[in-house]
Each structure stands twice: as structure tokens, then as C-alpha cells.
Design brief:
Blueprint lengths: L1 E6 L3 H10 L7 E6 L2 H10 L4 E4 L8 H11 L4 E7 L3 H5 L7 E5 L3 H11 L3 H4 L2 H9 L8 H11 L5 H8 L3 H11 L13 H8 L1 H18 L8 H21 L4 H13 L8 H10 L3 H9 L3 H11 L4 H9 L13 H12 L9 H7 L5 H17 L1
Parallel strand pairs: 1-2, 1-3, 3-4, 4-5
Length: 388
């Protein structure tokens, strides 16, 4: 069994964590501590596979504690579990935190995160990624508008009007929201011109995904980067995310998993402008972009994106899909999921990636025979877009 240490000053929450993972089938041995000092006593006696800490506690906050965990046990996975208001602070702690899980959450979210954390270790604990994230001048900052919208969605007094008003603060994001609402992939019967109506028709989950991705890519659009078009990238991501969503729907996936696939498709290819060196190198040497990135930076853009998204508190399924959408066979999750849909959609939407479709991975999951159906869905989607 793997071991996890929960650090939380709320006694009821500590008991709840134990109940969530108390079933032996979960494969976790749970230890708890009521504050950072008690946790350090335990950590000096033994190492844990995972330490999950609240942010604000008496005497020592979560970031300070995880900094100590990093010194004592560098290979321990380190998670902040805290309120949404602490998300930006946790995202800034590049040196000590691997993942952020926003409160409130349910047992399903916690178990999904822990089930995937081992296969994500290569990204979450990579020194090269951490160093790269620390020095890239074009690294997207934590998306504040996204945080404000999530806060509003979580609020008991939430309203579509207030959320639409927040979205309308950014004309670029408003334009993208209306573009998506009126796209053939969404299939609304009438043209939408009002942000409130767009929020209502798209749903809060998709709005949150669109705001996050639009804020990330707006930081690239303002830069003149050779061999790179932000508009072309956005167009590709919209096709990819729409197809991933359609594939998940066709496979009757859980609604939350369908939206995870859509979000991951939108975020799959973050590309800070420093990576233009890799674009040029890949073209000159006629090698795949990930190979060029590894040679120049020691890390890929997908790894960097996954690293950031984990710190920003996105679900582990989304982080996994972003991290492994080019190399799904490296994931430890061997079931049809958002990762599968995004991998297939990325290959079917971009001729340059067609040869990267991992047929052996699809065969291992037992879904290789569905590929032709997914191709037909992709063709139908392209036809609808052309007509629309």
C-alpha cells in the first residue's frame, strides 16, 4: 500500500479524509497531523509517498511545510488542499508544490488525483521542468479572471448575469465565447450575440474552460513569434477539443469526463515564445517538435503545460491528458478516458500528427475497433464547420 499524510487543522476534515480512503481497495495507508509541526515530527521518522496539506494553519502554512518536506524527502509528492481563494498563492510556489486541489471536493476527485499521481511523477517532480518554469519570461501568469469566475460559480449567490458580466470585462474572451457558442460543433439552433445567453447555452463548466484557455493563449497572441500563429493554434485547439468532446459523448462517458476532455483539448499545446527555437530546430533537422524541445530545453511544451495546470488546480484527468496526449502509452491509466479522446482528436485534426496515432495503445484499451467511427465523427464535424 502507498502512504499519505494529511495535514489539516480541522479535525472533521481529517476524519473525512480517513473515511474517503479507508477502504483497503483504495490502496492507501492514511496518517494525519493537525498542524505543520506535528507533521514534521512524523516526517523526520518516516517518508510518505504523498503529503497533502491545507494552506493556512496555526504556526506554519502549507507552503512552508511542503518546503520542509521537499528538503527531507525530495521524492514525496506534495499537494496543497485549500480554498479557491488560496489558488493563486499555491500556483506561485513552483519550488515546493506539485498539485493544488481546491476545496470543497468529493471522494471521487481525491481518488482520481491519487490514482493518477504516480504516472504524473515524471512531470510533477521534474527538476528540468521546474527550472524551465522559473526562468521562462513568457510563462503565463495565474489567470486571475478565471479565478474570479470560479469563485462566482462556487458562490451560493451565483448568477449567470454576474458570470457573464465578469466575462465581458475582457473583449477578447467575450469574442471567443460567442465564437464557440455559434460554432457548428455546439449546434445551437439560433445565433447567439449576448454573453449572458452564451453562458446559459454553453454551461458553466465549458465557460470556465474557455476562459482559462483564452487567458493562457492571449499571452501568446500579443507576441510576434516566428513559425507560430496564435490564431492558427486556437483554431486547431477548438477543432481538437470539440472532437474530443464528441468522441466522449459517443462513448457515453460521464458528463464531468466529457468536459474534462473538452478542457484538456483546449489546453493541450501551450507554447511560450521561447519555444520558437525548438520550432525552428525541428524544421531544420526534420525531427518531431517534442524531440527538438527535449534537445534544447530538456523538457517538452506538453510537460510544461501539465506542470502549470497541476499548480493551477485543474483536475488530475485534465493534467494527465495534457501531459500524455502525444505519448498516451506512458500513462499509468489504462482505461478509455479524456486522455484517449484528446490523443485521438489531436491526431485526426492535424495531418502533421496523423502518424503519431498510437494504435497499440488503443488496442491495449480495447477500443482500436472504434477508430473508424471516430474518423467519421471527425469528418462530420469538419463538414458542419465548413457549412457553418
Amino acid at each position: 500500500m502507498k502512504s499519505i499524510l494529511f495535514v489539516e487543522d480541522n479535525a472533521m476534515l481529517l476524519q473525512l479524509y480517513g473515511l474517503m480512503l479507508g477502504d483497503e481497495s483504495c490502496g492507501w495507508q492514511v496518517t494525519t497531523a493537525s498542524d505543520g509541526l506535528d507533521a514534521l515530527v512524523l516526517l523526520r521518522q518516516t517518508a510518505f509517498d504523498v503529503v497533502a496539506s491545507d494552506m493556512h494553519m496555526p504556526g506554519m502554512n502549507g507552503v512552508e511545510l511542503l518546503s520542509e518536506v521537499r528538503k527531507l524527502h525530495p521524492h514525496t509528492s506534495r499537494i496543497i488542499i485549500s480554498g479557491i481563494t488560496d489558488q493563486a498563492e499555491a500556483a506561485g510556489s513552483l519550488n515546493c508544490t506539485h498539485l493544488f486541489i481546491p476545496k470543497p471536493f468529493d471522494a471521487k476527485t481525491l481518488k482520481a488525483t491519487l490514482a493518477r499521481i504516480s504516472s504524473l511523477d515524471a512531470y510533477l517532480k521534474s527538476d528540468s521542468l521546474r527550472r524551465l518554469a522559473g526562468k521562462l519570461r513568457s510563462l503565463p501568469s495565474f489567470p486571475q479572471l478565471y479565478l474570479e469566475i470560479v469563485r462566482e460559480i462556487e458562490s451560493p449567490n451565483s448568477s449567470l448575469q454576474l458570470i457573464a458580466r465578469l466575462v465581458a470585462q475582457d473583449p477578447g474572451i467575450t469574442a471567443k465565447l460567442l465564437q464557440v457558442a455559434n460554432s457548428a460543433a455546439i449546434g445551437l439552433p439560433e445565433k447567439v450575440n449576448d454573453p449572458v445567453e452564451a453562458v446559459k447555452q454553453l454551461g458553466l463548466t465549458m465557460v470556465r474552460s474557455l476562459v482559462l484557455s483564452a487567458q493562457v493563449y492571449s499571452s501568446f497572441q500579443a507576441r510576434q513569434v516566428r513559425h507560430f500563429s496564435a490564431d492558427a493554434l486556437w483554431s486547431h485547439l477548438m477543432r481538437c477539443s470539440g472532437l474530443a468532446r464528441a468522441i466522449m459523448r459517443h462513448e457515453h462517458a460521464d458528463p464531468d469526463e466529457i468536459e474534462d476532455a473538452f478542457t484538456a483539448g483546449l489546453l493541450a499545446d501551450s507554447l511560450p515564445d521561447e519555444f520558437q527555437k525548438a520550432l525552428v530546430f525541428a524544421e531544420v533537422e526534420n525531427i518531431p517538435l517534442p524531440e527538438a524541445e527535449l534537445q534544447i530545453f530538456g523538457a517538452t511544451h506538453t510537460g510544461l503545460a501539465a506542470y502549470l495546470l497541476g499548480l493551477w488546480g485543474l483536475p488530475a484527468a485534465i493534467v494527465e491528458a495534457v501531459a500524455f496526449h502525444h505519448t498516451p502509452e506512458k500513462s499509468g491509466h489504462k482505461k478509455f478516458s479524456a486522455l484517449t479522446a484528446v490523443h485521438v482528436a489531436n491526431a485526426l485534426c492535424d495531418p502533421a500528427d496523423a502518424d503519431n496515432l498510437k494504435l497499440s495503445y488503443l488496442a491495449q484499451l480495447g477500443v482500436a475497433d472504434r477508430l473508424e467511427t471516430w474518423r467519421q465523427i471527425a469528418v462530420a464535424q469538419e463538414l458542419e464547420s465548413a457549412v457553418g
